[in-house]
Design goal:
Oligomer: single chain
CATH class: Mainly Alpha
Order of helices and strands: HHHHHHHH
Radius of gyration: 22 Å
Number of strands: 0
CATH architecture: Up-down Bundle
Distance between the termini: 81 Å
Structural class: mainly alpha
Length: about 250
Amino acid sequence: MNKDHGRTKIKQKKNSIDHALPLISKDRVRTNLLKRQEQKALAFLVQYIPSWMSSNVLTGIGFLGNVIVFLSFILAELFDTRFLLIGVIGFAISWFGDSLDGRIAYYRKKPRKWYGFMLDLVIDWLGIVLIGLGFVIYADRFLKLLGYAFIVLYGLEIIIALLRYKISGSYSIDAGKLSPTETRILISLFLVIEVIFPGSIVYLTAIADIILAISNISEFKKLAKIANERDEEENRKSELKIAENNKE
């Protein structure tokens, strides 16, 4: 009896996730490594977000997570490296708020496509500036440039996402197989390693910068090809229109 009851609950839970998945997947193309696991997690969580927790509240929670990451760098620099572990919690909070703010709006059938698009980009930019600034304060001398490079490269990723939306009409927050989710996990891992092996975060950040640079170059090449194809198509249409007008 208990086994049957347990199976029924598991089946109901699966059905509820399957029902929520199409709702939260609207308006966004995902290509990141963890897209399947992340989408299922979000489909599960949206069903338990209390009604008073609006999209704006979740956006604020996401930004608060970035502030916590920033403070973890400050505390680690002033007191003890182990304070960096607070940053891992900050990234988890950041993921929770940032990933759910738009998805909860679609789940509740109250999408905020343009407002949410604008707000997400601004908050994401402010968040990455805070995290980069925290690293700049924590790092020594010229190594601060690695934090600056990270801000620049992540900012370029946001610009490429905007250009992709303008040129192709397809909005994606992912740069190939990387998304903010993978980036958060990667940096969290860096923080843990830094606590165990002080000084290692400098080399790990350099690796992260290289990965971001390669990803941005790859996505830029793809986008340039799409833009060129669109130009050629529009030019052909323009030439055909001129030819038709001349015939008349």
